[in-house]
Design brief:
mainly alpha, 3-stranded antiparallel beta sheet, about 10% strand
Length: about 230
């Protein structure tokens, strides 16, 4: 356990601490979905550090302490987290979530995020979405859904998010404080894309509901949008 707090890894420090053998979060007993999610959320960004410290109204301080002291701080300090630490968290999630398979079965990352953010820590939803002018929907992450498109061989995240929003007629109601995006996947046998290039920045201008944008023809404020 590492009770002392450490900031997220950046630039050369991230490469130095995280690269090499015995780095990252050790996998064990179908933990890959949780390992990948935790690494993405905390290794190199502080945007969700409130999950580690804030006394939310419904917050389970025991789970919060395990997440902070046994997983995030060791990951940022040494670049390595033992499988036993993740199993400790999984056991607590099993108790709190009334689901016995959290310690041995592979889960959808969204199920894990919803459980720990909503039921255990009591965090407000991170995203507000609207589809086709219908009622707003609140959620913690967005999973990319789209049909196979032949012109996309090695896409980047920007392309996938834009096309997924377009095909589902979705808009972001407001700029999210944190935009967690789950890449498309189809189990062990079939992958839609063999590789996806991470977009280091994401332009959400065209994804925002009622956001002022300039006309692509005259440069003035646009009054119509063509999908």
């Amino acid at each position: 356990q590492t009770p002392e707090s450490f900031p997220p890894l950046r630039n050369e420090a991230a490469v130095c601490v995280l690269r090499g053998r015995m780095k990252g979060i050790q996998g064990h007993c179908n933990s890959c979905y949780m390992d990948a999610a935790l690494f993405s959320l905390f290794s190199c960004t502080s945007v969700l550090d409130s999950m580690l410290f804030m006394p939310f109204p419904r917050c389970d301080r025991n789970v919060q302490g395990i997440l902070r002291d046994e997983i995030v701080n060791p990951l940022r300090r040494t670049g390595f987290v033992r499988a036993s630490s993740v199993m400790h968290l999984r056991e607590q999630l099993t108790d709190k979530g009334q689901c016995s398979s959290f310690t041995n079965a592979e889960k959808d990352p969204e199920e894990f995020l919803n459980l720990i953010m909503q039921q255990i820590l009591g965090i407000e939803p991170l995203l507000k979405l609207q589809s086709g002018g219908q009622k707003e929907q609140e959620c913690y992450c967005y999973q990319i859904f789209m049909d196979k498109q032949e012109d996309l061989v090695v896409p980047d995240v920007q392309q996938l998010v834009e096309r997924s929003f377009l095909s589902s007629d979705l808009k972001l109601v407001e700029i999210p404080s944190c935009f967690i995006i789950q890449m498309p996947r189809f189990g062990k046998e079939y992958k839609m894309f063999s590789k996806i290039i991470p977009s280091l920045e994401l332009d959400i201008t065209d994804l925002l509901l009622d956001s002022p944008r300039e006309c692509c023809l005259c440069g003035d404020a646009a009054t119509l949008e063509c999908s």
